[in-house]
């Protein structure tokens, strides 16, 4: 029944048309031909439909509606001249009917006859100023060339049709084009008031907020777009871009990872993934993503960035190969020759680097940076006499080349030559960069060589707090020793040893002058080099009478960030622990999560141990040092440390938190292993007697100083705390 009613409504205009003219055939014959045409058209048989409509027109040539139907079907069949002829017939039959001029306007518009089409729609509005259809076409046809006029027509239309989402959207688009951002924003909000799920409105608002530099609002709108269309890689990519620019790398990473899954071949997404990997210093990932971009892009900047990533990831040979690919595109370009030289410099091949730099200088003798690198590489080869002219040339070409000024000044001072000139060069460098710690060190060292010990001590006492550099502490210690302050000198050298426990010059200077503190600083220095630690872990908790055993994954990032995933059957996570500066957070799928101890002291102190901070607290005048067998014992009111004097490793630690009322925490460290040059315990036991809590874990498959994304240490949304 519904289908029959719809069919009747579709042909109603025909029955409402002017009566058929008298003809040999009856009106039923004309209706019959029209119905045949309609059925053919509904079933996609357009040629047959055209023939039937033509017969209907022959039977009643005065029927405007039949000619209108013929006009639009001809248009559908791309018979544009026939469509125009039928439209002209419609206008001839009904010159005072606005609909006839709308038909003509639509046909003219399809023929791209803009002027004539505009005139037809204007004629329709002259006959009926309130015609909604004519208003919409008049507005639409003016959008590109006459947006102000278009705006007025849309406003007229909306007076009678305030619920029209389409018209309000067009209004907003024109206001945006005209630069009326505030009005455009209001119009898009009007669209959302009518349809809160209108994707185009949320997207347009996001663009407007970007123009207004309201990043937070733009992100909120794009997030709504993501909710409405979660498979839209373009939206995800834009979100990632905004999150990155606003400093939220974790959210940027998450957005770009989703975008990459949807569009793995999108070069823009791969480029952003490389930048994010660079930010977290995951050079392998950066190489992987930028390689995808470089495979399909010939841009020099892309290849240069790829070469840099290869260099940072330890793929020096590939870096040079990439740089040579750039150089071959323009063999005589001095800058590209210079880049290849830098690649060989990174490979620690100074002679080869010099050859490429000299090739660059043959093309352009006036490149200060190239002269500087020729000089530094000759210096590496022990030929300062050949380095010096190039370093001087770099300064002559660029009097503000602070790196060259400092390098040459320090080189002279360290050799005890040209000391007054060395001081002048370093002071010139500091004029441009007064807070550069390396330059302050050079200044102090030059004063030392000049015998101006008071000025040397003042400069170096400042420099040691500007950079964590064992060389600066070594210089400072030398100045203090020369100034008659041997104990302070030893302490300075020991601070340097904490940064580089294997530095031979420091070990030689200290000798046996301060063994207990020397040992303490060496153990601290070993741990200070630990930026991150990962591995598998076997965990045991003793909470009163309850014993819990688990196997899991362990992540640590300096300072005080932990993540432990305790695994259950089929290696599914059962308990997740995340420690951040805001405290300890738990998420558990187990009903007995309460068995797991929640005291944070053990984890906080473990972080202090791994960062070296725990040992640093025992480096003070109020700490007593004694020997018990082969161990050095460091005692203070707040706790005790025991260090194996031979192996130089921490074996025991006791910490009294806020004595006398705070809990006492005992640690035992065993099973030390050499992990990529650092000595680390694989077995750690912890006991808090007042809480009847014991904790132990065995670390295996340890890896150090790998880049760990910040998202690993985000606080879980749900917690069983």
What's the layout of helices and strands?
Layout: H1 2-16, H2 27-42, H3 46-59, H4 64-76, H5 80-93, H6 98-110, H7 114-127, H8 132-142, H9 147-160, H10 165-177, H11 181-194, H12 199-211, H13 215-228, H14 233-245, H15 249-262, H16 267-279, H17 283-294, H18 300-312, H19 316-329, H20 334-346, H21 350-363, H22 368-380, H23 384-397, H24 402-415, H25 419-432, H26 437-450, H27 453-463, H28 470-482, H29 486-499, H30 504-510, H31 515-528, E1 532-543, E2 546-557, E3 561-567, E4 573-580, E5 583-588, H32 601-611, H33 613-616, E6 624-628, E7 631-636, E8 639-644, E9 649-656, E10 664-675, E11 678-688, E12 693-704
Antiparallel strand pairs: 1-2, 1-12, 2-3, 3-4, 4-5, 6-7, 7-8, 8-9, 9-10, 10-11, 11-12
């Amino acid at each position: 029944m519904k289908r029959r009613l719809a069919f009747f409504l579709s042909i109603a205009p025909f029955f409402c048309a002017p009566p058929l003219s008298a003809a040999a055939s009856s009106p039923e014959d004309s209706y019959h031909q029209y119905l045949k045409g309609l059925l053919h058209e509904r079933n996609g048989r357009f040629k047959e439909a055209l023939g039937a409509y033509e017969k209907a027109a022959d039977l009643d040539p005065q029927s405007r509606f039949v000619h209108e139907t013929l006009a639009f079907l001809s248009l559908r069949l791309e018979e544009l001249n026939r469509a125009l002829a039928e439209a002209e017939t419609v206008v001839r039959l009904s010159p005072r009917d606005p609909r006839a001029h709308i038909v003509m306007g639509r046909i003219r518009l399809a023929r791209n006859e803009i002027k004539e089409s505009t005139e037809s729609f204007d004629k329709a509005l002259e006959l009926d100023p309130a015609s909604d259809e004519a208003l919409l076409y008049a507005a639409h046809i003016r959008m590109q060339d006459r947006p102000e006029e278009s705006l007025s027509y849309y406003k007229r239309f909306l007076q009678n049709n305030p619920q029209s989402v389409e018209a309000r959207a067009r209004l907003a688009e024109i206001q945006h084009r005209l630069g009326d951002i505030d009005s455009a924003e209001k119009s898009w909000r009007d669209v959302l008031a009518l349809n809160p799920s209108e994707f185009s409105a949320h997207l347009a608002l996001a663009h407007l907020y970007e123009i207004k530099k309201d990043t937070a609002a733009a992100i909120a709108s794009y997030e709504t777009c993501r909710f409405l269309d979660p498979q839209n890689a373009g939206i995800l990519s834009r979100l990632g871009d905004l999150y990155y620019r606003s400093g939220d790398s974790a959210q940027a990473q998450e957005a770009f990872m989703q975008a990459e899954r949807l569009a793995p071949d999108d070069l823009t997404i791969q480029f952003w993934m490389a930048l994010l990997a660079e930010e977290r210093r995951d050079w392998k990932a950066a190489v992987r993503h930028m390689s995808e971009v470089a495979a399909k892009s010939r841009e020099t900047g892309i290849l240069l960035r790829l070469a840099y990533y290869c260099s940072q990831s330890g793929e020096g040979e590939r870096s040079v190969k990439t740089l040579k690919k750039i150089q071959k595109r323009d063999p005589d370009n001095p800058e590209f020759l210079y880049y290849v030289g830098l690649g060989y410099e990174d490979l620690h091949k100074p002679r080869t680097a010099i050859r490429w730099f000299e090739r660059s200088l043959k093309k352009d003798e006036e490149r200060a940076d190239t002269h500087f690198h020729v000089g530094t590489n000759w210096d590496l080869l022990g030929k300062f006499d050949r380095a010096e002219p190039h370093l001087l040339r770099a300064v002559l070409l660029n009097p503000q080349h602070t790196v060259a000024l400092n390098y040459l000044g320090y080189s002279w001072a360290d050799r005890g030559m040209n000391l007054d000139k060395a001081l002048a060069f370093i002071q010139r460098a500091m004029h441009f960069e007064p807070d550069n710690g390396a330059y302050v060190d050079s200044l102090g060292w030059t004063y030392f060589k000049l015998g101006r010990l008071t000025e040397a001590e003042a400069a170096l006492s400042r420099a040691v707090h500007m950079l964590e550099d064992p060389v600066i502490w070594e210089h400072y210690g030398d100045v203090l020793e020369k100034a008659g302050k041997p104990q302070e000198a030893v302490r300075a050298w020991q601070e340097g040893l904490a940064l580089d426990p294997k530095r031979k010059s420091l070990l030689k200077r200290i000798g046996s002058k301060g063994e207990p503190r020397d040992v303490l600083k060496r153990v601290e220095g070993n741990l200070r080099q630990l930026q991150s630690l990962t591995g598998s872990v076997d965990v045991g908790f003793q909470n009163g009478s309850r014993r819990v055993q688990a196997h899991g994954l362990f992540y640590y990032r300096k300072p005080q960030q932990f993540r432990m995933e305790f695994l259950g059957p089929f290696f599914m996570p059962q308990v997740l622990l995340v420690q951040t500066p805001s405290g300890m957070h738990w998420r558990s799928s187990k009903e007995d999560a309460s068995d797991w101890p929640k005291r944070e002291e053990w984890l906080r102190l473990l972080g202090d141990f791994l960062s070296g901070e725990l040992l640093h607290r025992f480096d003070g005048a109020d700490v007593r040092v004694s020997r018990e067998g082969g161990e050095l014992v460091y005692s203070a009111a707040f706790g005790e440390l025991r260090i194996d004097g031979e192996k130089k490793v921490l074996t025991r630690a006791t910490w009294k938190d806020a004595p006398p009322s705070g809990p006492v925490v005992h640690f035992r460290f065993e099973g030390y292993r050499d992990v990529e040059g650092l000595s680390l315990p694989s077995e750690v036991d912890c006991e808090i007697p007042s809480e009847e809590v014991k904790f132990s874990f065995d670390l295996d498959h340890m890896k150090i100083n790998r880049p760990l994304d910040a998202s690993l240490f985000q606080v879980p949304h749900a917690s069983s705390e």
